Amino acid sequence: MTREEYARLMGDDATGRQARAFIDQAREVGPLPRYGSPQWLALPAADVRRRAAVLVAAECWRLESSPLWIRAQLEAEQDGARRAATAEFEDMWRRTLDGITRVDRARAAGSDIGLPLPERRRLALQPRPGDRTTPQPTRPRPPSPAHHPRGPQNGALRRSERLARTDAAADHGRERTP
């Protein structure tokens, strides 16, 4: 952007200088209300601040609708988007490198993190410090009370005995026919 384009973009041309001079004179009288606001509507029609507020709105419209302003605004947005994308990309790489560093530290401490599954399985089968090297004797499991060698214990009945008792109780009230 050339110096002249920048000056026009910032309203530093003959039109802009004349508008700023009038606005500065009106500010000496008092604060300028925003065009269309209740404070602006309350000003008398002859008040210079009323015309200055209209001029501020006109200057804003003139500058924001100029092709130079639009181009500068798009460039600023693109620069901002480019900076945001670059920052996001750098953040992604920082997190990736942090993860790699954590894996490297864990592997240096003896962890199997990050290793292929077959290698992890092989390492899992190797004894580690503190593992028992001799197998512990297994204790036999006590038999179920229903399968005790001397018959059911503690009131436990075999299934066949339960069925026989149920049948006997059902037949108890019936007459027998030959």
Automatic annotation (TrEMBL):
Residues 137-146 have a biased composition (Pro residues). It comes from the Bacteria. Residues 126-136 have a biased composition (Low complexity). Residues 158-178 have a biased composition (Basic and acidic residues). Residues 111-178 are annotated as: Disordered. This is Uncharacterized protein. It comes from Parafrankia soli.
